[in-house]
Specification:
single chain; mainly alpha; 11 helices; about 0% strand
Length: about 350
């Protein structure tokens, strides 16, 4: 097979897998926001069956016992579709590793990044199983969310290396540490957002910009940010308090302004570089979209579509930031062209 055909096939495979990763993150948010995480309360099957069709009796019995509980036929299908797509993603990444290793000389890249992505998706699969076996323990679910964004970041890195872009000036290199700092802030904010979602604290403050009518409401930070505990519980086993949920929401809301200002100023500066104008403009647009969807979530009491879009916006911010960081790595060099 010719060099050009191998390169083209590899690129198509990488971009298909990248797209599926983004879709899986969005669907994962849908699973969580529809309370479908325990739609099949075992793993990897559904009551020991490959599909919910083989578990109809168990699902019917569980839904009859708890009509508004975590197990219904629709929730079982939502959960299992998420698992099927995750399995397909794993197989595609194995294919990427195979091609990256076998054709490493022709592709001109070390297979290390592809191998690291495969390791990350395996760990992510383990957290997916623990999400079920630990009964939606907030720390595990949040780690699963952050792990998904890590896999997306690695896939974006793989894809960004395959896209041509204009050469960057040598002066652009000065923005690398600033972009790394922005990515760190974004990671913290995404983790805080995951903590809000997994603790169902999105509606803990129903007004804006104040919370319960005051700027600094009564809060229980110790209870809210205790990591090792079950869903809806404090470490003592008592039900989590409204003050703890308020603390979770309030921290996420206020840290968002830090990220918004920092990333907004940085993206505005990066737009001066022709090779960064596209992803920097996307970053600005997504920051504004996150502000709008975040406020809409509060004012309209967490509508499902807006909540899913808010999760997708976080993924978009992560991928735009990774693209910028990858391109900054070539600052001062030649334009990256398609082979």
């Amino acid at each position: 097979m010719s060099h050009d055909r191998i390169t083209l096939r590899y690129r198509k495979l990488v971009f298909l897998t990248w797209f599926l990763t983004l879709d899986l993150i969005m669907f994962g948010a849908f699973v969580r926001l529809t309370d479908s995480g325990l739609g099949c309360p075992d793993w990897p099957g559904c009551y020991g069956s490959i599909t919910p069709l083989g578990a109809m009796g168990d699902i019917h019995e569980a839904s009859q016992a708890m009509p508004f509980g975590p197990v219904t036929l629709s929730k079982a299908w939502i959960e299992m579709i998420h698992r099927y797509v995750g399995a397909a993603l794993g197989m595609l990444i194995i294919a990427i590793v195979y091609m990256a290793w076998r054709h490493r000389a022709r592709l001109g890249h070390s297979p290390a990044l592809a191998i690291g992505t495969l390791v990350a998706v395996c760990v992510q699969g383990a957290f997916g199983a623990w999400t079920v076996t630990h009964r939606l323990m907030p720390a595990v679910v949040t780690a699963h969310l952050v792990g998904g964004l890590l896999v997306l970041g690695l896939m974006t890195w793989l894809a960004a290396r395959e896209r041509p872009h204009a050469a960057l000036s040598a002066a652009a290199a000065r923005w690398r540490p600033w972009m790394r700092g922005g990515l760190l802030l974004l990671l913290i904010q995404v983790t805080l957002g995951g903590w809000v979602s997994t603790n169902y604290a999105a509606l803990a403050c129903m007004d804006f910009p104040t919370c319960h009518g005051v700027w600094i409401p009564e809060m229980d930070f110790h209870g809210g940010f205790s990591v090792i505990r079950g869903l809806g519980e404090l470490p003592s086993g008592e039900m989590i308090s409204q003050h703890a949920l308020t603390a979770i929401h309030w921290v996420h809301r206020n840290f968002a302004f830090v990220v918004f200002v920092y990333m907004g100023i940085l993206a505005s500066r990066l737009r001066a570089e022709p090779g960064l104008r596209g992803p920097a403009t996307l970053l600005l647009a997504l920051l504004l979209a996150q502000l709008v969807t975040g406020l809409t979530t509060i004012f309209f009491q967490w509508p499902l579509l807006i909540a899913v879009l808010h999760n997708g916006g976080a993924a978009g911010l992560a991928l735009a930031s990774v693209v910028i960081l990858v391109r900054l790595g070539s600052a001062g060099g030649r334009p990256v062209e398609a082979a």
